[in-house]
Design brief:
single chain, mainly alpha, 5-stranded parallel sheet
Length: 639
Amino acid sequence: MAATETLTSLAMLKVNIDQGKDYLDYQRPFILQVLVTHKPDPVTDQVVHDHLRTQFGLEIPVRAVQVVLKRLSRTYPLKREEGVYHIAGVLPDPGITAEKSKANRHIQAVVSGLLEFAKGGGQCIAAEDEAITAICGFLSEFNIPCLRAYLRGTTIPTVEVKQQAHIVLVSNYVLHLQRSDPERFESFMILVQGHMLANALLCPDLQNAPKTYKGVTFYLDTPLLVQRLGLEGEPKMRATEELIRLLGNLGAAVATFSHSREELDRVLRGAADHIESSTGRGAIVLEARRSGRTKSDLLLLAGQLDQLLTEAGIDVKTTPRYIEGFQIDETVFGKVLEDEVTYFNPRARDYDINSVRSVYVLRGNAAPVSVEKGKAVLVSSNAAFARAAYDYGKLHEASREVSSVITDFSLANMAWLKAPMGAPSIPTMELLAYSYAALQPSKVLLDKYLSEIDKLQKQGKLSARDHQLLRSSTIAQEELMRLTLGDEAALTEETVSETLRRVTTAIKEEETEKITQEQDRHRATQKQLVEMSVQRKSLQRRTYWRCRRNAQICAWSMSAVVFALLILGIAAGLGLRAQVPSVGWGLILGSAFLAVASLANLLFGTTARQCHESIQSKCLTYFLRKEAKATGIDLGADG
């Protein structure tokens, strides 16, 4: 089954992560296995691409396959003639079969758990095939859209029967695993991390990109500021917090425009005005009710915005003035936005346009070819907004290669790929944030739900107390999503009755002392597990960045020695003679080193930069292994 092979391959990608290799090396064992198993003649990138899809369930672009075949031909008996390759000897078996059985254990744990979970809740999945399809559909949501450098949005082949109900069900399952089944949750995390690693295979030029984001300022839009302040729940706050920390470690600046700060203030005060109203809705209002925040709490936050943003590592920069030569056609872009984004507040559309045109001003006449050269990039949690900016940007040189707007997950995935062990929490945080968001009812479903309970009250089928409970209780909305899985068509009078029954039962259970004590013990245990996990990942993160700094110092020290030898070699070549014996020996040594370096460059195309990066990579691997041995923590440094 293709979907099963896809999940297995993603698990194997995670298992094979290695600090000493670049992204495309993750693909080598898969392509080698294709050549060993099928022995195609001739070996073409298209043939290999097709076998990767059928044998491993991965949709790898042909161009990426080309790059790996070229690399393999330098090491193995793979000869190129007239534009195609031929196998000219015995190829080593990469041993994927053994890895496959290990990966399959994780897949079976996740799939069987989903079937149990769906059965227990009377949900829409009853067969293993359907469970696997649902998981693949869920993982395909973790894609990288709106970047020209990427040839596809995801390595997962198109899921033909992708359903929103499956997304909601798997999201609920993920949160259930995180709360009550840590072992299966880790198995699911292996799939998520494997998919994030697989995203690197979509861009064959990614390994040539700089290892940092120095010189780039990422501007967060208002919804991300809301998330960072914890106003839409802890999972989203943790994900945004971790992303900001990683960007800082990679040398980037994180900021927001002054007009976004102004919008944030308006949003907070607007939510405060509606939090006590029965008609109040929206993510901030719902989370405030769930967490017990009051109107005064939100107003207090609004008055402390500058301090809170500073503490969060977000600099507020003045929105650039209008410069005619760098401006966008706001009317045209506004029409593009209308096709992609539904705005419930017209002012939000104006703020978004202002943010995009500000990025164009900051980029000036530059036409960056990668995010690392983007200078200014707007980061948004709204994929439709990013897609609209990307479509508009195709018409402009300044954003043809790098869109003015990218999604927060795209950035998190790309940044994580630069230093997976330096931000071990990123995949977990992104998974929980997405799952949490997927369980929030859409505006269409919420409107239909509210209309239905209003109708039932007018018909006398709901008391005023029950009506108020169903309208304002956060438990009611959670049960609504469990019963409908986000499908508006599944909302009926019977659904409302069942929601009321579940809410009433939940409230009665919470009133009993036994249940309360059990919940307290469970929360304490979960908190202890979370704290232990956070401490371990924090130690892992600090260790990685310390090793990376030491590797950089080591590499620059060795590069300085190499540079000195080259200078001595050049001096000797110019006929310089020394009176002091030690200097004379230095000239001889430098001359010999220069000859060797020149020969290496001639035969292998070796450059000083490649040598420096190779030294740094090997030093990093050495320091990581040393730290792993000393601390007993797996730092992913075994190669």
